[in-house]
Design goal:
Blueprint lengths: L1 H39 L5 H19 L5 H4 L12 H25 L5 H17 L6 H34 L4 H28 L1 H6 L6 H25 L13 H26 L1 H16 L10 H18 L1 H10 L5 H21 L5 H14 L8 H33 L1
Helix pairs in contact: 1-2, 1-4, 1-10, 1-11, 1-12, 1-13, 1-15, 2-10, 2-12, 4-5, 4-11, 4-16, 5-16, 6-14, 6-15, 7-9, 7-10, 7-14, 10-14, 11-12, 14-15
Membrane topology: Multi-pass membrane protein
Family: Belongs to the inorganic phosphate transporter (PiT) (TC 2.A.20) family.
Main location: membrane
Length: 424
């Protein structure tokens, strides 16, 4: 208590800097991989992707970023253990933010798409288990995260593989791909609208709906999403009518006109995924920051902490700056280095990833957005044969996923003992 009253302002400033650093890492790594499929397929340029992500990630983070701190809410650590020494929680959360931010910085420089959730979870587990007590950690939660390394990419990869196979069968491998694209793409547009609305309702807006005392069942979510899907399909049909066949561009690429149609779809999916991602993953940066601010202000550890709007603003700004300054490295990995993406393949990957997130939300399966997207890109690549995949890059990415949890933990332990030695 004495430490918090004596050094409260210094710790608060340090927490804001660490929270912004972590949010920067989320923007440079996690947001970049979410936009990588759109950029890699050339549906969007990097500048366009950054502008879309800046607007929709920030809107998602600020408008629907959540009320309760993510890390404590997710039950990774037992907050009651810190009741007699609340300053240890402050040191720990500061260490977790700096450790996860440092690991994301390293991964972004190397172009590795790693999970921000696993980075922060690893960091929290590290300082809790070594700095406090192994009993402070909910090890069952850690086990489910390890399982998700395999489950989420496998599920997303399978769905994306089947989706792209259907695109090949119904559109690409037919005598008149352009005519069949106009016939079948409205159904895919409905699926895009439905899936993205489901992601937004079940993940992005869940905190906003909870604040407003609105509780929707899975079927009600599905009904609202169906209306959105019909609207998206209606807008899509109108836009499709404006696209005229340009035979001159088909000389080099038989599918050039078809890809123009899928490119329009990719713009919609990129906007919606950015909003859903911003609303869901900003909590990784602002959750620990809110826990620190609340502990310093109250002088004790509480199970839940309110989320001041200025913290969400700080997190949103950090994400935008991270994407704009260093997002290009991870975008290149997802969009170009795993397999060659076109708008039709990128669309199948994004829809497969969205479908996996929806299924996970409905079943409670813990997944990583990063792992899901990488798995989806792999599935699309595999639909063209194993030779279409860059196996060396895939091995590197898999290794970086395994290293993320212990790396976050190790760095957090070092920071924790540094702060403990510095402040007492």
């Amino acid at each position: 208590m004495e430490i918090l009253s004596q050094y409260g302002h210094i710790l608060l400033i340090l927490a804001c800097v660490a929270g912004f650093f972590m949010a920067w890492g989320v923007g440079a790594n996690d947001v970049a991989n979410a936009m990588g499929t759109s950029v890699g397929s050339r549906a969007l340029t990097i500048k366009q992707a950054i502008v879309i992500a800046m607007i929709f990630e920030f809107a998602g983070a600020y408008l629907a970023g959540g009320e309760v701190t993510a890390t404590i809410r997710k039950g990774i650590i037992d907050s009651e253990i810190f009741a007699s020494q609340p300053e240890l929680l402050v040191y720990g959360m500061l260490s977790a933010l700096l450790a996860a931010g440092t690991w994301l910085l390293v991964a972004s420089i190397l172009g590795w798409p790693v999970s921000t959730t696993h980075s922060i979870v690893g960091a929290i587990v590290g300082f809790s288990a070594v700095g406090i007590s192994p009993d402070a950690v909910a090890w069952g939660k850690v086990g489910s995260i390890v399982a998700s390394w395999v489950v989420s990419p496998l599920l997303a990869g399978t769905i994306s593989f089947l989706l792209f196979r259907s695109v090949q069968r119904l559109i690409l491998d037919t005598e008149d791909p352009f005519a069949n694209a106009k016939r079948y793409i409205p159904f895919y547009m409905f699926a895009v609208g439905w899936m993205i609305a489901m992601v937004t309702l079940t993940k992005g807006l869940k905190h906003v709906l909870k604040d407003a005392d609105i509780k929707l069942s899975f079927l009600q979510d599905a009904g609202i999403a169906a209306i959105v899907g019909l609207l998206v399909a209606g807008v899509g049909v109108t836009m499709l009518k404006r696209i005229k066949r340009d035979t001159s561009i088909e000389a080099e690429n038989r599918f050039a006109n078809v890809e123009r149609v899928f490119a329009i779809l990719m713009i919609f999916t990129a906007c919606a995924m950015a909003f859903a991602h911003g609303s869901n993953d900003v909590a990784n940066a602002v959750g620990p920051l809110a826990a620190v601010v609340n502990t310093i202000q109250v002088g004790a550890v509480t199970a839940k902490a309110t989320m001041p709007s200025w913290i969400l603003l700080l997190g949103g700004l950090g994400i935008v700056v991270g994407l704009a300054t260093y997002g290009f490295k991870v975008m290149a990995t997802i969009g170009r280095k795993i397999t060659e993406l076109t708008p039709s393949r990128g669309f199948a990957a994004e829809l497969g990833a969205a479908a996996t997130v929806v299924m996970a939300s409905g079943t409670g399966l813990p997944i990583s957005t990063t792992h899901t997207l990488v798995g989806a890109v792999l599935g699309v690549g595999l639909a063209r044969g194993i030779g279409a995949l860059n196996l060396r890059m895939i091995t590197t990415i898999a290794a970086s996923w395994v290293v993320t949890l212990p790396a976050g933990a190790g760095i957090a332990i070092l920071f924790f003992y540094f702060f403990k030695g510095l402040f007492g």
